[in-house]
Amino acid sequence: MEKFMYENDYVVSTRTMAVGPAFEMDGQSKVYERNEDVLVVKDSAMDIISEGCLLGGASYEGRKDAVRYRTGVKRKVPVPMNVFQKIGAMPTHSPRLHNCFWLFPYHIKTIASHPKNHLHSEITFLDGQQLHIDVSAYSLRLQKMRAWEAFSIFFSPSS
């Protein structure tokens, strides 16, 4: 069973593994951090991602436009939030949708089909925490490859 801690606001860090909606909880989003309890935060997932981009030196829209320009990816665009700390996130759905989770690929160990529903996935993070997402494993693996492509461009020393 997950243990929750409540926070008023949250700043993305190298420990952030996932940010998503907090369905049926007193908060707008849940944040999964490496080796920590799950945080319930009053800000929306999109607000947390946008602030992370600004703290990394550019707006969310600017980061998204740069990835589109360099990779040609048009939908569910992965975002290199902080190129110096190599923090980047990928959306599971359109960021406009309430059920969109933002995953931080460097923390993902495995992506597997959910045993009871092949249209859902079980993500296992490097620290052993698991997250159930309503997206197929195939789609998430493809999204992770897109994220790696974008991050390899933006996180390389010569970018």
UniProtKB/TrEMBL annotation:
Source domain of life: Bacteria
One GO-annotated biological process of the protein: establishment of competence for transformation
UniProt xrefs under Pfam families: ComK
Protein name as annotated: Competence protein ComK
Organism: Alteribacillus persepolensis
